[in-house]
Every structure is written in C-alpha cells, then in structure tokens.
Amino acid sequence: MEARAVISVRDLVVGFGDHLVLDHLCLDAYSGEILGVVGASGSGKSVLLRTIIGLLPKREGQIEVLGLNLDEADEAQRRALERRWGILFQQGALFSSLTVRQNVQFPMRENLDLSPRLLDEMALAKLEMVGLARRDADKFPAELSGGMTKRAALARALALDPEIVFLDEPTSGLDPIAAGEFDALIETLQKTLGLTVFMVTHDLESLYTVCDRVAALADGKVVAAGPIAAMLECEHPWVKTYFQGKRGALLAERRVSV
Ligand SMILES: Nc1ncnc2c1ncn2[C@@H]1O[C@H](COP(=O)(O)OP(=O)(O)OP(=O)(O)O)[C@@H](O)[C@H]1O
Ligand SMILES: [Mg+2]
Questions:
Q1: pLDDT of amino acid 256
Q2: Burial bucket for residue 244 (CB in 10 Å: 0-12, 13-18, 19+)
Q3: What's the gap in Å between 46 CA and the centre of ligand 1?
Q4: How much is the pTM?
Q5: Which residues pair with 69 in a beta bridge?
Q6: Contact in structure between 238 and 218 (CB atoms under 8 Å)
Q7: What domains can be seen in the chain, in order of their start residue?
Q8: Which residues, by Cβ under 5 Å, contact ligand 2, an ion?
Q9: How do residues 43-90 score in pLDDT, each as one tens digit?
Q10: pLDDT value of residue 255
Q11: Is 41 in the pocket of ligand 1 (CB under 6 A)?
Q12: In this predicted model, what pLDDT tens digit does every residue of 192-241 receive, in sequence order?
C-alpha cells in the first residue's frame, strides 16, 4: 500500500516575539495511521497542532491538509476542510454550560441542517461509539469523571464524521487503566472509521500500544520520525533519554517478549 500524506508540513516557523518555537519543522502524517507526536513539555507540540488547524499564525513554511495548501485556500474551501477534521484539545475539552448531548450536537448545528430528532439520534450514536451510556447524555461536564470527559470530547470531535482527528494529550490525567481503555477506543475507532489520527502524547504506553509511527519534537524540529524501533535507535539526547529511560526500556522489553 502506498502511503499518502494527508498532513504535510514543510519548513514551518512559528514564534512568539523573539521566542522561536518551531524552527523549519517538517512532518508528514499518512492516511490511516495513528501518528504519535512526542517532545518535552514546552517543545511546541500543542503549538504545532494549533498551527496546522489554523488557530496560530505561522511565520514561514507550507501546510497542506487533505491536499489543500492552507495559504491558497479561500474561505469556503477552508470551512469545507474544517468539517473534515475533528479536534480534542488539551484543555477545555467541553463547553461547561452545555450538556454532553448539546456539546456533541454543537458542530452538527453549526454545519448541518438537521431536525431536532435526527440531531438527537446522531448525538446518541456518537456517544455510544465512544462507550458512553444514554443516561450520560444529559449530564453537564462538571458531573463527568476525567475518562468520561475525554470520551465526550472525542464524541464531539467525531460529530461530523471527520477523516482526521487531532488529539492533544488525550490520556493525560487518566489513571493507567482508563488511559489504556481510551487508547483501545482510539485504535478501534481508527480501524472501523479509517481515521488518520494525529496524537500529541507523552504517554509511553500509548506510543507503544497504538501508534503506528512516532514523531519526536526537539529544538523546534522533528528530530526523529518512524516506528518505535526507529526511536530506540535515535541518538538525539532527548529522544534517547525518553525512549531508553527506565520506563521506556521496560516497555520495549515487554513488547519484545509478548
Ligand atoms: N499563545 C502563545 N503566546 C506566547 N507563547 C506561547 C503561546 N502558546 C505557546 N507558547 C509557548 O510556546 C512554547 C511551546 O508551547 P506548547 O504549548 O506547544 O508546548 P507543548 O509541547 O505542548 O508542552 P506540554 O507537553 O506541556 O503541553 C512554550 O514555551 C509556550 O510558552
Ligand atoms: Mg501541549
């Protein structure tokens, strides 16, 4: 199977004042893969994600998503493209004044002209897809556990049947069991819906169990990209410490022995 880049980032430069966060960064995400993006805290993972989806301005470089060069896209093309991706942000995953059902329906109301009955049916179907119960639909975000919040936010990200899902630290704050369940959910959804998943994470377990490829960010660039095996061979000091540190080594060993 020939890999097709659905996200293609070339020579991306992003900074704030005299602080250069991304410095000629290049990265591809291929169709149907789960790409894990790792890097130290503050290395620019969220900035990269937010720049790709157009929430932050870039100084230089090209970004192409689903074949569209974002600089050349007009307003209508951009809006059409935005309907083809879903996002789970690192913070503020849900609107606190809306119920779970209303949160999931939010993008549907903005983009689709549907009857209230159909909106309800679709929202419930999305909630079921992410493993939430019907009775959770009318809860407010403050009434949810951390794991349920992530699931509800994922349901909202899937509201418009996107082709790409951007996830920023989807398992942070979850205990290892809930995190493992969430990873399994992402993997299942990726397989059944054929999604391309761009997942920022520092969760080694996620990287080992669900990611097809990993891109490591350091010094404003992608310093290594490839399967876990490539990360284990990488000589960059941060990548080396991260993947060959105690936890990384344990996971690698377990992986080899299963
Ligand atoms: N809107 C902004 N204005 C100014 N500086 C910003 C802004 N957003 C991010 N930064 C800076 O850019 C750098 C990268 O931030 P970013 O949030 O991308 O880190 P990260 O890799 O996602 O870290 P973490 O793993 O902690 O989430 C940080 O130094 C941060 O302070
Ligand atoms: Mg971040």
A1: 57
A2: middle
A3: 6
A4: 0.93
A5: 64
A6: yes
A7: 32-59+85-257 (3.40.50.300)
A8: 45-46, 90
A9: 999 999 999 999 999 999 999 999 999 999 999 999 999 999 999 987
A10: 65
A11: yes
A12: 999 999 999 988 888 889 999 999 999 999 999 999 999 989 999 999 99
Give pLDDT tens digits for 150-166.
999 999 999 999 999 99
The pick from 14, 18, 21 for probing ligand 1's pocket by mutation, whose C-beta has the most ligand atoms within 8 angstroms, reads 21
CB of residue 216 inside a 6 A radius of ligand 1? no
Structure tokens at 138: 């009318």
Q: Which residues contact 70 (CB under 8 A, 6 or more apart)?
A: 54, 63, 64, 78, 81
Does the beta carbon of 220 sit less than 6 angstroms from any atom of ligand 1?
Answer: no
Q: How many CA atoms lie within 13 A of 179 on its CB side?
A: 17
User: Is the CB of 43 inside a 6 Å radius of any atom of ligand 1?
Assistant: yes
48 Cα nearest atom in ligand 1: 18
